[in-house]
């Protein structure tokens, strides 16, 4: 699955649920290990604590939202049960799923499968003083050059903790950025923070933290700050780095937002005197024209008018994506962010170079600009980059004399890897709303003229059941006369459930979480079926023609018998297939791309001999596989007593089982062909 909603209060395995105080909903003991798979959405409606030794490995999406009690906390405890201020590294880790794809951009549309995904952590409603536990984040970025541009999703993290530890066997979090930074400006080893008002990078002290109490008074320090880290001997591309710290909260207190930045009219660069042709000097005796770049305004004139002014640089303060696609749009049901007068956004800085003689700058960026009201203030340009990754950065350019506006980062968070449509009401999972969608693949068997002969369905959701169950949710078995359908799946390994081959299915169900990437067996015995057509629905609505991905980002796949790779099933796609035959032609169906080596070894086809209930007679009969000629039938009651035995039964027609109808008793029916094929079925009255 891609988005399986799990409410933590319902989990029991390896997790001890604590109800002793109002502050904690979920408690993970020191032996508890929780794995959140890629695409899974876990919801925790309250506080959480993790004891030393316990851990959560997050490949998907984790939401922790404050309950109505208001005093919820997120914290780590030591083995004695005491809170650990600053948290315990490794207790909660956001993992990279495809670390080598860090340089790939995810296509910004709902039908595309993202190339680069990662665990995301969303915490909302908590005051910052209620969050003392640690969250680790794995990350990679393209190398930016002499200085790496970063947002920091940590509260009050000391800058020296970005250095590699001197411990003999450092943990990934202690390795941090894999080098040692210093405080020597222009050394490519220092850490700097951008001042939007002064248009300058200011130095930070190693002993200071992301609150930056040592920074100049004119610097408005917020969690949305834009940092650069000296790039000398820094490798954050080919090596996965792990940083640990206390995550940023949405509130400083119950009413004050922690990550809402007010863009005041003409404030960007307001304290900087660029001078004639940018020859003005900043507080570090650096000329502005040695580093100020403004491609938004360059065509209107360098160092004239709005050039270099009203630029605001930001870092992503959260461990979730930020969606910038609608920040120019005054939406009725949107994210609440409306930057009236925005010109555009600058992203994905590349080629950062610095020279003591000529200053610093970047060789390339990506740009998004916004249309006017006639275009609905929609983005243009590099819209694939509108989703800013955790630890990513961007800059906003406002037009001259733009009105004061607020960029509320907390309302831009998004688990999706594509942007929210303007008409879609905002939520962190907007346009993905995957809490309980029913995803369905219909496989329609067509004859040579394209006429439908038979069809079968494979359905998944967060609540449907994998494998044989006594409590199916949507599953329907196929009646007599069908020659096209699926068999019950092995819930653990996929493929045939060898203990339940006496029936097959018209609608087959599996759970999108625990059965993702595993196969069910589709078998065609009908020689008139020479092609398949795929029909894909979500909550009964068809997805667009030619589409594969569902709202979860996953989709259905198929594999022909003998093939070594699985192919995407596309809406309304028609594929040619081998005609069915008496032995059956096998296909594999998947929800989610299978991993590992696909099995190409032929396995014996399962018999289609079924024990069928006849509602007209309130009795049972045996319907034989068309390949069978003769059969032996034995029926036992549950005590093991033989109640019926027939030899050499003609398999060309149904055989009625002569069983007492007025006795409420269960039976075991065993049917054996002349070739020794055996089918066992249970009758429950």
UniProtKB/TrEMBL annotation:
Residues 1-21 form the signal peptide. It comes from Chryseobacterium oryzae. InterPro entries: Secre_tail. NCBIfam families: Por_Secre_tail. Keywords: Signal. The keyword Signal applies. It comes from the Bacteria. This is T9SS type A sorting domain-containing protein.
């Amino acid at each position: 699955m891609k988005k399986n909603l799990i409410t933590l209060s319902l989990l029991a395995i390896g997790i001890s649920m604590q109800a002793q105080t109002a502050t904690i909903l979920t408690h993970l003991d020191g032996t508890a290990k929780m794995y959140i798979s890629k695409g899974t959405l876990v919801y925790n409606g309250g506080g959480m604590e993790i004891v030393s030794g316990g851990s959560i490995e997050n490949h998907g999406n984790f939401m922790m939202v404050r309950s109505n009690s208001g005093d919820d906390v997120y914290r780590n405890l030591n083995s004695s049960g005491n809170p650990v201020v600053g948290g315990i590294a490794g207790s909660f880790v956001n993992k990279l799923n495809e670390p080598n794809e860090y340089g790939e951009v995810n296509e910004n549309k709902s039908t595309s499968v993202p190339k680069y995904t990662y665990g995301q952590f969303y915490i909302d409603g908590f005051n910052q003083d209620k969050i003392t536990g640690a969250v680790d984040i794995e990350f990679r970025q393209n190398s930016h050059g002499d200085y790496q541009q970063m947002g920091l999703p940590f509260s009050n993290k000391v800058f020296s903790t970005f250095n590699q530890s001197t411990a003999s066997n450092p943990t990934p979090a202690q390795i941090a950025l894999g080098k040692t930074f210093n405080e020597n400006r222009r050394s490519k080893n220092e850490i700097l923070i951008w001042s939007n008002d002064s248009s300058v990078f200011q130095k930070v002290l190693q002993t200071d933290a992301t609150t930056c109490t040592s920074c100049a008074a004119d610097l408005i320090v917020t969690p949305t700050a834009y940092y650069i880290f000296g790039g000398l001997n820094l490798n954050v591309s080919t090596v996965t780095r792990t940083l640990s710290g206390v995550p940023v909260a949405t509130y400083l207190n119950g009413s004050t937002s922690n990550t809402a930045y007010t863009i005041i009219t003409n404030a960007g660069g307001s304290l900087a005197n660029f001078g004639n042709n940018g020859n003005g000097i900043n507080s570090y005796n650096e000329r502005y024209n040695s580093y100020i770049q403004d491609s938004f305004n360059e065509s209107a004139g360098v160092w004239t008018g709005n050039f270099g002014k009203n630029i605001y640089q930001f870092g992503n303060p959260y461990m979730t994506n930020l969606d910038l696609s609608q920040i120019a749009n005054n939406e009725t049901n949107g994210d609440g962010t409306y930057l009236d007068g925005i010109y555009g956004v600058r992203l994905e800085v590349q080629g950062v170079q610095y020279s003591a003689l000529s200053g610093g700058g970047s060789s390339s960026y990506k740009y998004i600009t916004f249309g006017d009201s006639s275009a609905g203030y929609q983005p243009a340009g590099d819209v694939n980059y509108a989703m800013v990754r955790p630890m990513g950065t961007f800059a906003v350019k406002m037009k001259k004399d733009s009105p004061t506006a607020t960029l509320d980062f907390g309302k831009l968070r998004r688990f999706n890897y594509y942007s929210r449509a303007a008409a879609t009401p905002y939520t962190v999972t907007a346009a993905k709303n995957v809490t309980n969608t029913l995803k369905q693949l219909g496989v329609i068997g067509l004859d040579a003229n394209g006429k439908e002969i038979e069809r079968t369905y494979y359905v998944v959701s967060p609540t449907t059941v994998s494998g044989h169950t006594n409590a199916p949710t949507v599953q329907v078995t196929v009646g007599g006369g069908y020659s096209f359908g699926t068999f019950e799946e092995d819930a653990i390994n996929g493929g045939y459930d060898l203990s339940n081959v006496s029936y097959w299915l018209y609608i087959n169900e599996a759970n999108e979480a625990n059965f993702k990437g595993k196969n069910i067996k589709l078998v065609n015995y009908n020689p008139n079926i020479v092609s398949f057509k795929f029909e894909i629905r979500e909550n009964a609505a068809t997805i667009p023609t030619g589409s594969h991905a569902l709202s979860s980002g996953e989709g259905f796949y198929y594999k022909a018998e003998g093939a070594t790779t699985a192919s995407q099933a596309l809406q309304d796609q028609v594929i040619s297939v081998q005609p069915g035959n008496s032995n059956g032609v096998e296909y594999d169906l998947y929800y989610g791309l299978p991993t590992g080596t696909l099995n190409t070894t032929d396995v014996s086809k399962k018999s289609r001999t079924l024990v069928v209930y006849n509602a007209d007679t309130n009795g049972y009969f045996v319907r034989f596989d068309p390949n069978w000629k003769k059969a032996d039938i034995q029926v036992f009651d549950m005590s093991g007593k033989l109640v019926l035995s027939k030899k050499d039964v003609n398999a060309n027609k149904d055989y009625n089982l002569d069983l007492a109808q007025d006795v409420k008793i269960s039976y075991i029916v065993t049917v054996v062909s002349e070739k020794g094929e055996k089918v066992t079925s249970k009758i429950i009255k």
